[in-house]
Fold this sequence. Notes:
Oligomer: single chain
Distance between the termini: 27 Å
Structural class: alpha+beta
Radius of gyration: 16 Å
Number of helices: 3
Low-confidence stretches: none
Amino acid sequence: MEQLQEGxxxxxxxxxxxxxxxxxxxxxxxxxxxxRPPADxxxxxxxxYVQLKSTTxxxxxxxxxxxxxxxNKREYMTRLAAPRRTVKxxxxxxxxxxxxxxxxxxxxxxxxxxxxxxWICLEGYEVPEAEKPSVKIPTANLFDAQALTDIMGKIExxxxxxx
Length: 163
């Protein structure tokens, strides 16, 4: 599942003109960094960390407003909820079908991944006392090239990433 999700996020990043940089070591619970080069060569790049989570236990519905994702460890949510002065952090959750053979569909014209990724910024969220806390992720938060471009724009303008 990790490889499928990394491939999905890499594809979205490439479409948006960004780089996907996988963390080779545990970076405080962060799995990768997404970086957008500056429009002006003298400018500064924009970046943020991502924590990637994938599961076969969810099937988000496009007709629902949100779905609930449960962390395996409280510390994963705590790290994402902590206020960040510099590099922001986003959770990206991918729900895939239970059967591995059903994860993709290959045609002559395309490769389809059988579920989408969804994103949420938890900075400033109150972390529940539960050992395995849950968060509601809006189904409107599909992680695609437009969403990535919008996230990068908000970071550049210093705007909050909350929906």
